[in-house]
Q: What sequence folds into this?
């Protein structure tokens, strides 16, 4: 007859837990994902949210390791991203990659017409920066490769027009200003990051530099807390909200400033009374430090 030997609980096999650098939680290995290029390990949920956020922001086409101290500066491969995100999100990621490739390719450019958005081929020359005639194969529009305005043989490009690298599909030059209002993609007037507007109001805030501006005329709205910009001029009544919601917004803004002012007004007598006491205590403490030690 044999008896089973008692085994202490600390000798029982326990699955090791791995710490996630993003949420600082500990999870079993099957709930973790390892980045192939740098071998950094994160919980799958955190890494998925990180990847989806970067794709929605549209700021990066090469998604780097979330660890800022990653020694290998690794990047996620396309097959790794595809396993984490939904099909629609992956299509957006590939679209951003394609737009970036065209932007960096000296032999390709976007048609400046917002209704076309086709990719046009440029002729290979020794000096790619020199203006050349480009004809869109889709809409037959003829434009300058450097400034995107209508082709101007024998004339220099206008200085007000942005360079070739500043265009993505849906953006126009100043020559096509009338069609630019409804362009789906524009650049932030401050940091020049590309911004896509699907829907919503015309008051935009750049997620990169936090600059607020009007989508239609690109005028700054950083100091326009009451949105008075949409009461006059070419952008009148183009905010995208009802008049009642605008009035309610302005009431909230005025109420916040009035509340701070009232709080400061009420607290100012107490601050004035407390100032001498604080200064007196500080003087006593400094005087006590200067006294010689007893012998």
A:
């Amino acid at each position: 007859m044999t008896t089973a030997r008692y085994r202490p609980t600390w000798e029982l096999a326990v699955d090791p837990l791995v710490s996630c650098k993003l949420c600082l939680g500990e999870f079993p290995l099957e709930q973790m994902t390892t980045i192939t290029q740098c071998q950094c390990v994160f919980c799958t949920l955190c890494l998925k949210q990180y990847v989806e956020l970067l794709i929605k922001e549209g700021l990066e086409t090469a998604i780097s390791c979330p660890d800022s101290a990653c020694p290998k500066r690794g990047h996620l491969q396309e097959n790794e991203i595809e396993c984490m995100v939904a099909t629609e999100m992956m299509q957006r990621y590939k679209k951003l990659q394609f737009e970036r490739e065209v932007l960096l390719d000296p032999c390709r450019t976007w048609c400046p017409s917002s209704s076309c958005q086709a990719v046009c081929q440029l002729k290979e020359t020794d000096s790619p920066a020199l203006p050349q005639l480009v004809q869109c194969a889709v809409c037959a529009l003829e434009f300058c490769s450097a400034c995107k305005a209508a082709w101007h043989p024998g004339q220099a490009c206008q200085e007000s027009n942005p360079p070739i690298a500043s265009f993505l599909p849906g953006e126009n030059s100043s020559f096509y200003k009338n069609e630019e209002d409804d362009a789906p993609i524009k650049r932030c007037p401050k940091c020049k990051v590309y911004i896509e507007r699907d829907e919503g109001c015309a008051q935009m805030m750049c997620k990169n530099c936090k600059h607020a501006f009007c989508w239609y005329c690109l005028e700054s709205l950083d100091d326009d807390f009451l949105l008075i910009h949409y009461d006059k001029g070419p952008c009148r009544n183009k905010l995208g909200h009802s008049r009642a919601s605008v009035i309610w917004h302005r009431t909230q803004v005025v109420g916040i400033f009035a509340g701070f002012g009232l709080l400061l007004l009420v607290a100012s007598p107490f601050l004035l009374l407390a100032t001498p006491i604080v200064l007196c205590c500080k003087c006593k403490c400094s005087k006590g430090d200067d006294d010689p030690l007893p012998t």
Summary: Residues 100 and 196 are 14 Å apart (CA to CA). The first helix runs from residue 44 to 57. The chain is about 30% helix and 10% strand.
